[in-house]
Amino acid sequence: MISFGPSEEQQVVREAMREFAEQVLRPVAREADEESALPDGILDQVWELGLTNTQLPEAFGGGGEARSPITNALILEELAFGDPALAIASTHPSAVAFAINDFGTEEQKEAHLPRFCGDRFAPASLALIEPSPTFDATALQTTVEPKEGGFVLSGRKSFVVLGDRAELFLVLARNAQSAETGFSAVDAFLVPSDTPGLTVSELELNLGMKGLPTVSLDLAQVEVPEEARLGGDRGIDAGRLLAGTRTANAALLTGLCRAVMEYAIPYAKDRHAFGEAIAQKQAIAFMLSNMQIETNSMRWLTWKAAAALESLEDATRPALFAHGYSAEQGMKLADDGLQVLGGHGFIREHPVEMWYRTARTLTVLEGVAAV
Amino acid sequence: MIDFNLTDNDQKILDYVRTESLVARKYARHYDENEAEFPPEELEEAKDFPGVWSLMGDRGPEDSGQSVIGMLITMAETWGDYSVRMRKGRGAGLGNAALGASGTEEQRTKWGGLLLSMAITEPGCGSDPSLVQTTAVLDEETNEWVLNGEKIFVTTGCRADGVVLWATLDRSAGRAGIKSFLVEKGTPGFNVSHKEKKLGIRADDTATYVFTDCRIPRENLLGGKEEIPKGGSGGFRGVMKTFNMTRPMTAAFGLGMSQAALDFTREQLEQAGVDLAYGSTGHGLSAAAAKFQRLEALQEAAVLTVCHAAYLSDQGEPNNLEASISKAKGGSAVREVTQGCIELLGPMGASREHLLEKWFRDVRITDIYEGTGQIQNLIIARTILDYDRSQLK
């Protein structure tokens, strides 16, 4: 049945997150960007909401609720409405925890999931992106080769969220000896941060989301044991893992665009030129109506992808649509939002220049959040 | 709960409609090239197909809502062909929607069985119907309305049994003076002047009506309210309400055709050896594959806005904003999708040997009728800015 109605429970979560985003995240977003640092205590404060552990099994200390990519997409939209950088930082461990939960062996779950069910923020990072203009998740340049009793990982990763503090990395690599291409040749490895051969860079300096700590990883013949391969002999469903992070990205962009729109509307009604509010001119009004049309479109594509993930279907295609469409529209809407504010849009006193940089950054990323 | 899976019941109906609409597609080219002919009421190969509404009986609460499935059925029909759709099961004209929204119980019972067209547009007024010049004057002696004026672009105008006509009781009263009237075919003074010649949807019946001292019974005023309300827009609001379902429906008409264009383009690209595999977002994707997937995402976005507007209607929630969103999105998406499909197939796409060029022409009206994309954007902007007509013109 085609339905656009969140459950009552989802509605409650959504409203709580909206309030949290407005009251906690938005007020500190600008400072985090200016200082290129996360506000003190923000990670623990979000951790208390239980966004990661609620959907992990009770056996490992989690809340035992069913994994729900739809609920998570709703949450990410709301948090990103507050601020995408803080939304990503505070939920990023889920990208690792959900992957272990969804694809890990019983032993791997037992070994790693309890750390995500504690009281304190558990920093862990998904290492997917590579520093190359030809980066493509289906054709990774980081490789893995089998070696007596384990594997050897080689390559470089970038935009590794929270890598400065992560205790555990989930590194995606391509099987160098596989005849297969695409997702089926992609594997994931659990790599503790103190593994020899793994070098974590200084913090990267990025265009947008400056408050979000990211690093590069250098993997120089990093040797890991057999049990580091997520899913054991089965490996992982990399298509599904990527679909989850792409859907998350689309949810974040939907929230960002709503933030832009809701900021631009009152500004345009307040700002007068030639005897009337600029919102009364079709040239401005139509940019705003387009924001409403496209924010809705992005949200429905996101929900459809999340629903496909939730019902365990192949979500590759809907996630690709949600991701690609949101990236294109997200950039345009942030761009238009800045234009509506004119000169003020260029001034750091207003958040739109920050959202403009955020949009250009977030729209080229994947693997920074998960549903 | 949020769900995008079709039930078996939903799927069964849509599969059926698609089978039927492929029969219609066989005739698409003929009636496009022979504009003066009307497609038959019934196609020989499809005459034993039961009407789609007969399959709607065993639907339950777990199936998609009536409006949502209605949109999907519409898309499945125009996916075959816009103009040679099956015509069994009447009562689906635009005028029927207006009768349902504005007519009294008695009027709905009396005329509900007729196929009704809707006549709003005039040579001098399109997007702004408050400029309607067609007049209705009450002759109190005979208890009749006397109608005078010309209406153009009347969909299903030649074949309709009657029309819901917009006319003004008092031109100086603006929108408040506009009322809708039901005029049956055969009424003296009601002339169907000609069928229009168009860019696309050529087989579709688009007529010009001329009313010359056309007399209709006093009770043919829809809703029965003869007075002109002071201030406010009076009965106008009622007629505008009609659009809350016809706007997404109109978008659905176009989206069925743009889906056909995408399906054809995929088939041709794959035959030519273009790899359309999903998964990569990087430079590994060919330009053709990247463009095709972008168009598919656009199509999907537009279809979802239509389903959303329909879903709200099924829930009994207001959907004025969402109806306009779906129409604006659908109208622009179908243009871009069909233009892009021809670009992807190159000269082959522009050949009349295939239906793609026809779909490109047929969908273009989507962003014009039932309110242009610009009018939809005005409605959306007024809503989100909380402006009235005088604040945002």
Low-confidence blocks of residues of chain A? none
Average pLDDT confidence of chain B is: 90
Task: Give me the CATH architecture of the largest domain in chain A, please.
Answer: Up-down Bundle
Q: Tally the helices of chain A.
A: 10
Specify the structural class of chain B. Answer: alpha+beta
- Describe the main β-sheet of chain A briefly: 7 strands, mixed
Oligomer: heterodimer
Distance between the termini of chain A: 22 Å
Give the CATH class of the largest domain in chain A. Answer: Mainly Alpha
Structure description:
The complex is a heterodimer of chains A (371) and B (393). Chain A has three domains: 8-121, Orthogonal Bundle (Butyryl-Coa Dehydrogenase, subunit A, domain 1), CATH 1.10.540.10; 125-234, Butyryl-CoA Dehydrogenase, subunit A, domain 2 (Beta Barrel), CATH 2.40.110.10; 238-362, Butyryl-CoA Dehydrogenase, subunit A, domain 3 (Up-down Bundle), CATH 1.20.140.10. The mean pLDDT of chain A is 97. In chain A, the strands form two sheets. In chain A, strands 1, 2, 3, 4, 5, 6 and 7 form a seven-stranded mixed β-sheet that branches. A two-stranded antiparallel ribbon of chain A has the order 8-9. Chain A has 371 residues and is an alpha+beta fold. Chain A has helices spanning 8-35, 42-47, 69-82, 84-91, 93-103, 106-112, 238-270, 282-310, 316-341, 352-362; strands spanning 124-127, 143-147, 150-161, 168-175, 186-192, 198-203, 214-225, 272-273, 276-277. In chain A, helix 3 (69-82) runs antiparallel to helix 8. Chain A has ten helices and nine strands. Chain A is globular, with a radius of gyration of 21 Å. Helix content of chain A is 47%, strand content 16%. In chain A, 58% of the residues are buried. In chain B, a hairpin with a 4-residue loop joins strand 2 (135-139) and strand 3 (144-155). Chain B has helices at residues 8-26, 28-33, 66-80, 94-102, 105-111, 235-241, 243-271, 287-314, 320-345, 356-362, 373-385, and strands spanning 116-119, 135-139, 144-155, 162-168, 178-184, 190-195, 206-217. Chain B is globular, with a radius of gyration of 22 Å. Chain B is 42% helix and 13% strand. Chain B has three domains: 8-80, no CATH class; 94-234, Butyryl-CoA Dehydrogenase, subunit A, domain 2, CATH 2.40.110.10; 242-385, Up-down Bundle (Butyryl-CoA Dehydrogenase, subunit A, domain 3). Chain B is α+β, with helices and mostly antiparallel strands. Chains A and B meet through helix 7, helix 8 and helix 9 of A and helix 8, helix 9 and helix 11 of B.
